[in-house]
Fold each of these.
Amino acid sequence: MPFEVTILGCSSATPTADRHPSAQIINIRDTLILMDCGEGTQNQLLHYRISHSRISAIFISHLHGDHYLGLNGLLATINFQGRNTPLDIYGPEPLEKMILDHFNYSGTRIKFPLRFHVTHDRHAACIVDNEKFRVKSIPLQHRIPTTGFLFQEKEGLRHINVQACEGLNIPYIHFQELKEGKDYTDPEGNVHPNSALTDAPSAPRSYAYISDTRFFEELAEQIRGVDLLYHESTFLHELKERAIETFHSTPVDAAQMALLSGAKQLVLGHFSARYRDLTPLLSEAQVLFENSHLAIEGTRFNVD
Ligand SMILES: [Zn+2]
């Protein structure tokens, strides 16, 4: 089952000619989630051929424009094109009023179920818990209330041991029950234990989205052992002072967080428009944490 992150935008504050503000699509076991929605996100969805009708939830980390200014436009298009399935939006408390005011002033009636869920920046909280995954919101340290998000897959079904099952001529009709952990009773009444017919499910995978924040050590505990860590890296470390002033991070901060939390893979993003060439940001992180990558738009990262 897929668990992958597609980068739609990787710029901080202002876009550049080839970089859009923050947005990502997270596909977690065929549920599509839009993470942040900077200006131009709907164009990026078109560009990468991802249908907005497949998106079931949108998460907004905070209310700086580079993370949500694309939302009204995207919602207007969704409304215009006649969606009727619900759309869940998770974000800071004022977001609901901001969106609804906009539609009220433009005389637009929202014709599909739009459900708002408030995130909190004072304490971590489990905000989604379904049969496939959990999402935890995590307070970050930025100039305004901001949360990161941790996506944790739940343990999947057991894998059929085809050889063992074929050896006993077990009909396919029983495979679903076997995957769910049940034993098999053959026509003669002999019980075959599940452990002899299936293998353990794949290890659950996890993804953390951390943008925007200054570096703070306590974050590591919240994302301990994460498989894929996206961490903002707005400035090179030579601008560490500027990063501290503006509550942002550098590639060194991101790599240190990857090390501290025991992350397996690091993706850097949210780059300042001042950098045309992003290689120095990547090199800076790789000195400390080799498995680092750039959030280049269009790149799809597998969580495994
Ligand atoms: Zn930002």
Amino acid sequence: MTAAHGRRFEGKVAVVTGGSRGIGAAVATRLAAEGAAVVIGYRGNQQAADELVRSLVAEGGRAMALRADVADPEQTGTLIDRAVAEFGQLDVLASCAGIEHFDALQDITPADFDRVFAVNTRGQLFAVQHAAAHMGVGGRIVLTSSVSASRAVFHHTLYAASKAAVESMVLNLSAELGRRGITINAIAPGGTATDMAAEHGAGYQHPQLRDTMPMEQWLAVHGALGRLAQPEEVAAGYAFLAGDDAAYITGRTLPLDGGFF
Ligand SMILES: NC(=O)c1ccc[n+]([C@@H]2O[C@H](COP(=O)([O-])OP(=O)(O)OC[C@H]3O[C@@H](n4cnc5c(N)ncnc54)[C@H](OP(=O)(O)O)[C@@H]3O)[C@@H](O)[C@H]2O)c1
């Protein structure tokens, strides 16, 4: 991977929340392969996080993993402070931690609302606040939305709204961060082959069709490319927005969805 992608992030330090699995793990791997020192945040899966760190270090990278629940801004602050203490600076925040939710209107509870927004929305805002405090000119922040933010899907209101808010945050924060030479953007992935998709992917189908059509067949109908993304394909978008080639892009959300319609 290193030879194929070059060393765009040599001398840079990146924090990747939700870096233990799925899209975040692929982002951490890509940034490390291109020379970044990477700090991986995770919620509970220490084994996956430690294994990823071991493999990145074995490849010659600099990496460490720290448990930090992004629903608690104090833990996010500690994650970022420790990243800076260990590696001396912070150049990139890739905010990938997120949780899914499907429920019909009458079944949504205030606790569901608070839990989903605490991770997907509030968690990302305070990650930006803590990260930006350590960043100088050239800082790069990439948050995670979803194609769901701009699609109507049965029983998906909470998750979709929590991600739509992220796109609005990115747009508005770009103004104040831009004056400091920091860019902030989001990736809106479509269906990507991770644990989350395996667990919740069927929810995207109409309730009457659910479980009648395999996910692959459904995607073949609803996506131009007709398949799930691999996490590495989505990670390439984060690396682009975190790199020098994206220096004049800010406040935007990049759909990375294989032409989902
Ligand atoms: N997969 C898709 O099809 C898809 C599509 C659109 C958008 N997305 C978004 O892309 C992001 C990554 O999704 P994924 O599919 O890679 O998910 P995943 O496979 O479920 O992995 C989730 C990651 O987030 C971490 N995480 C979850 N809650 C956390 C919390 N409260 N604090 C800190 N870390 C937490 C997990 O840590 P542990 O390992 O410790 O549990 C894990 O590293 C999410 O924001 C998701 O909403 C995914």
Amino acid sequence: MSTSLLEELKLDIWNPALTAAAQAAATDALEAGRILYLPRLEFALLPHEQRFLSAEWSDGQTKNINLRGGERKLRGARGGADDLALMQAMMERFSSQCATLIGALLPRYVPHLTLASTSFRPCEVAGRKSSYRKDDARLHTDAFPSNPTGGARVLRVFANINPQGKPRAWRVGEPFADMAARFLPRARRAWPGEARLLRALRVTKRSRSAYDHLMLQLHDRVKADAGYQRQAPQERIDFPVGSTWIVFSDQVLHAAMSGQFVMEETLMLAVSGMRAPETSPLRVLERMTGQRLA
Ligand SMILES: [Fe+2]
């Protein structure tokens, strides 16, 4: 692939020794809205883990099998206790390899990161039915209805572990600021007391900041606009089996079109930990609205 959306790194181990210049270049590419693409970095399953490559392990309630936050309780899977313990160990190994990789590649982030979740996605993405808001086959930037970030970045690491050689197919859209310029004028303002009410009703786990409100508005309005989905600048990217990629998913417009069996790690990064905080969606939206948003 030769698209300018990707910053390709030929690493094949999770703990590479990199120069400070290479680390800075990777960080800058990521913050500029590019995807760090590591075609030769494979998350290898152990022999006894191969059997987890089946959609049968999903409980059918949620699209992903998850370990969340500090609690690390396995959700979304069904099976015997011994099997699920082995599956959790596989996911924890992925999580710790991601931490190792970020320490090697993006070390300045380490003191500013919080682990949000680790997921294993055993279900085929193509043809999944859902409401437009939940339809991740539509271009969107990530925003969480119940989990406000307060401006913190959403850093995600993906690895395609499909056993049949099937790529993970994404569409990737235009730069965040271009999308925001189009959709911000259509964003609904939060009404007075809305954040307090949502918190009181436990719709949100923390108070929803003005930033989180706007990010949800952008997420929903972009997904709802069929014309934009069809005509907006975009590129298809196929992530092959055995590849890993890293992306700020709150910044990069993405849509998952097809693929099955992917590992995914989500970390939250404080804006103050960035090399170029002015590139964050928080600062972009603050410049556009002329307001402090978080
Ligand atoms: Fe997403």
